[in-house]
């Protein structure tokens, strides 16, 4: 009783302190978190799940930058420690580990016209970023830049000093590995065009055009195209004064296409004069980009768009309320939530048109058609977050995936703006949709989804695009080395198979729910094939040859830090060995029982074999919860990892955010629940970071309403669970079902 | 009497022999004439004054070719002695000395797909060309190619051997110095796009897009884009498998833009299977290109288009009938006429739309809007030919020029598809329009034309775009060296001024006709300023400095063969010294009288200082006619030059045909009349090549009808004039007026 009382008091105090706190969730978001340390998030202006983002681009044109778009594997339009700004990119990816998009670069400059980004770029200061708004000051040009966005359009406000000024639209440069585009002059204040993007992660056929319209608020004194001229040889090279240079097309007002083209607007500006730029995009057509602009911005009102963007984030972030924790923890939490609500984003224009999957045709949708499905990452926790907090969005995401299958014959693997990029491996749509269905969201065509899953899980040979090594997988129960080598990362046979086991387990669960008992039995049996890889010699999974022999020599530590190791894709055997979330007890038996399992997993942490930013092992900390008496290890590790790797600074994410996957890990972990087995409607629990977390569930999907997770914390650093209660009843298990959680309404922790 | 009788008999015989000859003028045209020897004509399919031409392209991709598009100053899509064919170019220039156009390359291939022209090109044989039709056989691919054209569209028929076949549209390569374009897939059998062309003669701002639609007659098995990838560096370069290579976009069906892009259609074809390709173009829009195709080709009927093309040429060439002469001479004659009726060509689409001069806007015309005005060349004789034989066309050409002035404020100098290219010098629209007006064609707005001429002849300073050295020209009466150096050809001061003198003389004539007496006096006086350049020391024109001093050292032979010499543009002092067609007698006085003039002019021929392919001196042979008793020298030189330089072989034109200027020289010379002073309605006469030439004049413009030029030739090689009669009356002058000629109806020569 005493404890209950004190809990009540604490809740009361928490409630009071929250009431005294006038900050809204939006105010806690720091978009600079995750903008260095290879987290590859950006501080630009974007609305939740929007098509448009407006992002400061500072990764080209100067040796002053530590990271250059063409160097290493650099994949973000912005790097916090870089210093040389070359414009605002329109439409970017957040937290993605391959360079893509990051073009349509709008740059304001002053002084004589230069269209060479090695010259016109500028250092900057006074950066400011809040959800939906970014500002800086260009010290070379003395220009204040402010940008904000609607779902499919941007508005940018530039405040100049008196003198000559220019607005540049550079469609030649960008992060993307594709090149080429065209610009057409529409009027003195408007241009339109398109830019090819794609070859994402060097998948050569995953390409698509990004259409745009750009409008300026003031008629320029002069305007024109530019193009960097290809090098000519011979007489032509000698006589063409622009050979190999940036050429200005000064008296030409029609259209220009090429690899490195742009358009400039030149002005004489007064002191403090402001000129606004609007950019609208579409993946369907220039006309649709213009429609998007007409629909989303009537006229040209920067402040209105900025306020609307803030309100959009207030609505999205307001789904969770937290009390307690430090200011920094609240920043980490809400910024993580912010990062999870950027991708997938909408693909359709205001008229509902979108490019059909892998098609030259366009479709029309009523609801939202989502795109940017980084499923190998996000099937692990991000879609579980959507299911819990944004069930309407998750339903539309599932519908979008099913529509892709209808359009193209396959579920997405890593879908990008209507193209399958074949990045990473597995059959990740299965755990996503199975998980969603099993958690009770069912307003989509599950039979069609099931047909898609059954197809990719069973059809043999080369016609199986989703599982290129299906024959061996079915025949042998595992994928031998060398069966299918997709790209420069070498043999990934074990990684492939592990994903199929996870998918087939999820498919078995779904089949069961759909009363397809034979299928359920078949796929569940297949999901256990991971045992083929278990090497008693090493106590890890280990690649095998076609004849069943083991890869030798073998070192389970090979492949750490994204170096190539046979069998494992971007990871070591240690990063993958426990990645059998659907049969932890079976894995433990293989390893020699509970003690051996727990000791080995503990050793992974103790010896630094755990990578906090690599998806296959991110559920590891929660696996101790399977073993009675060992759950404190989960609490210790989650507490340690959160404190060590997640910070309210630009360094605050341990690596690629992967479309919010790392952020979702932190977010769930701070709430005290984690979906450790995709495709199973369960959460693993740990000690929450906050004293009180209220999940304002959508009553259309969860009629029981809010879930309140509370924690009584005798000391500030208490992070071990002493006692728990669920719906007011004592709880001794450390894994709870989705239904238990959503119906119980309260989950309470007494910490120690 | 005896002579008259025999003449009658000869005429009768001539008439009989003509009647026996079933060949039409079209049959005498050999489009291979002028396709080597730097004449830069082409054997492709084109209709009279058409926008479209379909031309075999054999100037890239192989060291087997003697001439490569990027080598030397090569400027033609085709060279007779080259052997490596890489497709059919769509829209080309004929006889132009700067590389331009020659893109939209359609190539049929067989065997495995290659999109690299260094691989897919082929040797060929069995070439056949007649007006409006060209065919060859690709020996590498075993494909018979046939092409024909309407005014704005083409149709191409390819006959394959059984097997794999491809149709390629390469918009990356071409003669033009500009680069870049885009292609959009419209359907399985249609693509559209545009290609930037221009920077003609390295005038950087003279650029314009060429829009196109391409249709194939059979649905391909497979189709897609290609693009040569720019070289990447660093990690990107290592990981992108297509880095620096031709990349195929196999599963992508939207659009592609860039520097080196194309599209392929792949088929399985049966033995002897034919597939047709249609290409339509426009300088306004892709939609207009499609309109042009719909209007000019209903359906897809190769033979119909081919027959229509032949009929179009029959109508045009039928304006002149010749009798007598050798088969070779008739070939030379009709091929020359053919070459004069290619440029200027129509610019407007079937709906009348065309790109306004130097504008991003489009205009609409009722009549033909002409383009490709190589006026520094064609003012000398080609427009005089149009005025005489095709007065309706010439009227539309003049109207087009006046409309350019209305649209842009200036007359054209070297206009190319709506852009002024500023190639060569002078004010050549004045002699063209003055000449036309003075010859009685007056259905155009002469007052507006006069306003344009007055403007360019008088307004001072930098705002005078037509005459950049106007101030010095007016103040000093000549242009001093270094006043205005336009391009890589160095100082052209004398050439500039000489053109102004010619123009001001024509303008004086026009002013007189318009009763502007004061203007007439002013401009006539200015036209005599050439005397400032006459150097008694050298007996030639000679460049002068601003202080009046002469260029020293000086060699009047410098500048021959298109080497640079100060003062003279693409020529020596000898090529320019007699280029004062409006004041030959004054020039003779300067030189010391008739004898000195005649001897010096004769020496120019005797010492090989005459260039038969350089415009400033092409009237030289006719200048002897100014001096009584010396006219035989004209007859000798014209006869010699015709025989030496004009042949019925690919080598049959002495140099750049310059949009038909060389051909017009031959044509007039073979008819026995030559317009030796542009802007004066006079012809100089010489012995004609044929026994009878009938000019079927357009009675709407020349109510007196046909002109018949006859020659009585006692021996086959008689080429000196013994006697002449005009309208039946004896003629002793060797210069006759346009009115005399057109009203007299007959011009008879007795040769010796």
From TrEMBL, chains A, B:
GO terms for biological process: carbohydrate metabolic process; glycoprotein catabolic process. Its cofactor is Ca(2+). Residues 28-282 form the Glycosyl hydrolase family 92 N-terminal domain. GO terms for molecular function: carbohydrate binding; mannosyl-oligosaccharide 1,2-alpha-mannosidase activity; peptide-N4-(N-acetyl-beta-glucosaminyl)asparagine amidase activity. This is Alpha-1,2-mannosidase. Monomer. Residues 1-20 form the signal peptide. Its EC number is 3.2.1.113. Residues 288-751 form the Glycosyl hydrolase family domain. The lineage of its organism: Bacteria, Pseudomonadati, Bacteroidota, Bacteroidia, Bacteroidales. InterPro entries: 6-hairpin_glycosidase_sf, GH-type_carb-bd, GH92_a_mannosidase_put, GH92_N, Glyco_hydro_92, PNGase. Pfam families: Glyco_hydro_92, Glyco_hydro_92N. GO terms for cellular component: cytosol. Keywords: Calcium, Glycosidase, Hydrolase, Signal.
